[in-house]
């Protein structure tokens, strides 16, 4: 299916294009998660990715990054603790707070899912005409910068 070119100032058309691309990316993510032995949801996987990229943190900070209530984050953590993907421990600095950290199993899951996603996205990008690919990196970088998402770098390529 060929899409018509849109002007760079046509916010509605660009929004439609990003939404369409996001559906594809969600589908790729869902297929990549389907290979995980334990069933986890996309929001739970997002939690694992945050813990992998930022390290251990308080539940309230994690909930804020996920844009969910702390009680929702706690339920997600409960599920991930039972799967062995995250662990709770007392905060060494205060001992009153609880922090959550990724386990080796959680790291294995993040790396496996990310590797499958990277391969699937790579196959799609390879099908794009080269002329269309040229502006994609800068456009997507600007988009993710505007959304506050940390960049994935070539140094991450070994596990993504």
TrEMBL record:
Keyword rRNA processing set for record: no
InterPro entries: HTH_MarR-typ, MarR/SlyA-like, WH-like_DNA-bd_sf, WH_DNA-bd_sf
The keyword DNA-binding is assigned to this record: yes
Domain HTH marR-type stretches: 11-145
Record-level GO BP terms: response to stress
Superkingdom: Bacteria
Annotated Pfam families: MarR
Keywords tagged on the record: DNA-binding
Molecular functions (GO terms): DNA binding; DNA-binding transcription factor activity
UniProt name for this protein: DNA-binding transcriptional regulator, MarR family
């Amino acid at each position: 299916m060929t899409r018509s070119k849109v002007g760079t100032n046509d916010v509605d058309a660009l929004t439609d294009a990003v939404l369409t691309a996001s559906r594809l990316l969600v589908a790729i993510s869902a297929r990549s998660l389907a290979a995980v032995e334990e069933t986890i949801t996309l929001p739970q996987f997002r939690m694992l990715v945050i813990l992998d990229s930022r390290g251990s943190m308080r539940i309230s900070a994690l909930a804020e990054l996920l844009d969910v209530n702390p009680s929702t984050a706690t339920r997600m953590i409960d599920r991930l603790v039972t799967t062995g993907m995250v662990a709770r421990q007392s905060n060494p600095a205060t001992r009153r707070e609880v922090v959550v950290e990724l386990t080796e199993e959680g790291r294995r899951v993040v790396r496996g899912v990310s590797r499958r996603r990277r391969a699937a996205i790579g196959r799609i990008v390879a099908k794009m005409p080269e002329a269309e690919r040229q502006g994609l990196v800068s456009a997507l970088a600007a988009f993710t910068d505007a959304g506050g998402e940390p960049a994935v770098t070539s140094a991450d390529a070994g596990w993504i």
